[in-house]
Design goal:
Blueprint (H helix, E strand, L loop, with lengths): L15 E5 L6 H14 L4 E3 L17 H14 L2 E6 L2 H9 L4 E4 L1 H4 L2 H11 L5 E5 L6 H13 L5 E5 L17 H9 L5 E3 L1 H5 L5 H10 L4 E5 L17 H9 L11 H40 L7 H17 L4 H23 L5
Parallel strand pairs: 1-2, 1-8, 2-3, 3-4, 4-5, 5-6, 6-7, 7-8
Helix pairs in contact: 1-2, 1-10, 3-5, 5-6, 11-13, 12-13
Bound molecules: phosphoenolpyruvate and manganese (II) ion.
């Protein structure tokens, strides 16, 4: 990433920290927030959205062009670099005119190949850093497509932002991290830096540090985080924004992983262990969901006076899981044992409901 290589050391780029409000709201809010970020934090790039993609019309859709002039003013005054979200060719042209240093493609835009192509064409020839947020839906192909479209027009200074994925089932976070997707992106594109956006993953202020640290443990190279001079008064995403002072406390609490050669082994093993931990967390979540559904089925069976154990259904599940498992290279005996223990637990829960034992 070239947006912040002033502190590079041992050929390693310093972590890139982008911070700023979700939206530019007024000249005063932009300038005051930028000043406080400069004064209190180690962030080097000031972010603010001036065009906001809204689910429903009628919400605040961004302050528009004038916001870019406030960003430029903030940059001149503080020396911070600036970053803005672009969703159309016109946005790109405007952002370039106002000397914005970093342009990012938002999650709702990455899903649309027409928009990404339009943006890529408008970016042709620029060496500005372009950050691509993951698509809002968990489809790595769209993320890959965006990288390829940018590279095809010669845009090489690219980074990725992991901001989580929307899912039908509401979990702990506003957007499920689904770590396996950015991990796969890092495997496919080891040369492209990955940045974590804990604000949009969490949707709250309390889990930001934990998610930021998880990203760093996976070897991510930066952080984008929403910070507002007066978060409670923010026009958008107020639940997840923190003050610049709070941001600095968060940054000071993070452990940045070193990438030096003599640490290569421990770095690699830490990263792999962190992946295992995240997969285990996901397993727990999946097991919880699966067993809760089994309990719902148990209720239905009870209401309809149906036996807990339905051998045909169990046979079907087992056969299909063994088939699926072996087709991706898993051992059939392992799948069988794994499914049996899960099935036993479902039966136990359903039987407890009926208080009539397994029949
Ligand atoms: C944002 O960064 O404020 C934003 C709109 O993000 P996302 O595209 O991740 O929803
Ligand atoms: Mn936001």
């Amino acid at each position: 990433m070239k947006a912040d290589n002033s502190h590079s050391n041992n050929n390693e780029l310093a972590p890139l920290i982008l911070a700023g409000p979700c939206s530019a709201e007024s000249e005063e809010q932009v300038i005051q927030t930028a000043r406080a970020i400069k004064q209190h934090t180690t962030a080097t790039v000031f972010r603010a959205g001036v065009w906001k993609p809204r689910t429903n019309p009628g919400g605040f859709e961004g302050i528009g062009l004038i916001g870019l002039s406030w960003l430029l003013q903030a940059k001149k005054e503080t020396g911070l670099k600036t970053a803005v979200e672009v969703a159309t060719a016109e946005h790109v042209n405007n952002a370039l005119q106002f000397d914005t240093d970093v342009l990012w493609i938002g999650a709702r835009t990455t899903v649309n190949p027409f928009s990404v192509q339009e943006i890529a064409d408008a970016l042709k020839g620029t060496d500005k850093l372009v950050l691509v947020k993951n698509p809002i839906n968990p489809d790595a192909k769209l993320w890959i497509g965006a990288i390829e479209r940018l590279r095809k027009v010669g845009v090489e200074n690219i980074g990725l932002i992991h901001r989580g994925f929307s899912s039908y089932v509401k979990g702990k976070y506003r957007n499920a991290p689904m770590w396996q997707i950015p991990i796969e992106m890092k495997r496919l594109y080891p040369e492209i830096p990955m940045i974590v956006d804990p604000s949009h993953i969490c949707g709250n202020r309390f889990d930001l540090q934990d998610i930021a640290q998880k990203g760093l443990n996976l070897g991510y190279q930066g952080l984008m985080i929403e910070s507002h001079i007066d978060p409670n008064a923010a026009w958008t995403d107020k639940e997840q924004q923190i003050t610049p002072r709070e941001l600095q406390l968060l940054l000071e609490g993070l452990i940045w992983k070193k990438h030096q050669a003599d640490e290569q082994f421990s770095q690699q093993i830490d990263t792999l262990r962190e992946q295992i931990n995240l997969f285990d967390d996901e397993l727990i979540q999946l097991l919880t969901n699966r067993l809760a559904t089994a309990q719902q089925i148990g209720n239905l069976k009870k209401e309809n006076n149906v036996a807990v154990l339905q051998s045909n259904r169990w046979n079907e599940i087992l056969t299909s899981m063994i088939e699926k498992g072996t087709s991706v290279g898993l051992n059939d005996q392992f799948i069988q044992a794994f499914m049996e223990i899960i099935h036993l637990e479902s039966i136990r829960l359903q039987s407890n409901m009926n208080q009539s034992g397994i029949d």
